[in-house]
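From the pipeline queue, job 12 of 40. The input is one protein chain; the requested action is below.

Action: predict structure.
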Amino acid sequence: MSTQPAEPMNGKMSDLRFIDGGLKRARFADKTATFFFYFISAAFVFLLIAFTLYVVWGGIKAFKPEVFSFGPQGIGSQFFNTVYLVVLSLLISVPIGVMAGVYMAEYATPGKVTNTLRIAIETLSSLPSIVVGLFGYLVFIIMVHSQWNLFSGALAVSVLSLPLITSTTYDAFKALPEGYKEGSLALGATHFETIWHVMLPATVGPIVTGVILAAGRGFGEAAALLYTAGMSTDI
């Protein structure tokens, strides 16, 4: 009577022990790496919270009602000038940007010229503010023989926000389902009436989003204002 040799069984057992040891090492390495990443993340969050509390506590101690005054030690004049400048720039850029976006989306003939113009507008939306500031200083200050003023600053900021509003309007119209336009035209409305009464109300959300983004950029751009508005507080 023959017996089954024990060598294959011993080999299988050794393989299982090897695999089990590898799995244990892998689990240990995974737990170690997970703990390390959690520790680093917690440390960064702790530092961020500590820094924020430090800044807030320092600001609370230095907070006084005079901070919002229009005097030399207050920020009232700067805050008013910033809001006034952004509103003025939006009054310039929003109508032009929306009309330009509508024209490119609905009236311009598709082709190389339209695609080149669209790419140029998208490139201008990422233009550095220092370049726009120098352009505004050359055109709105030097060429017209003017001094630093908020109107020149508003024109410079409108140059920054105009491409963003135009691109947002164009994308909003292109993303609108064709059923809006086709249904309105089928009911007898003209192309202009369709745009004014159907397509613009349907795309007002994305357009307002683009206007808000343009306003946020206007609030944050300093280089464009440094060369055009300077330290002026008058118009």
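Job complete. Residues 36 and 57 are 31 Å apart (CA to CA).
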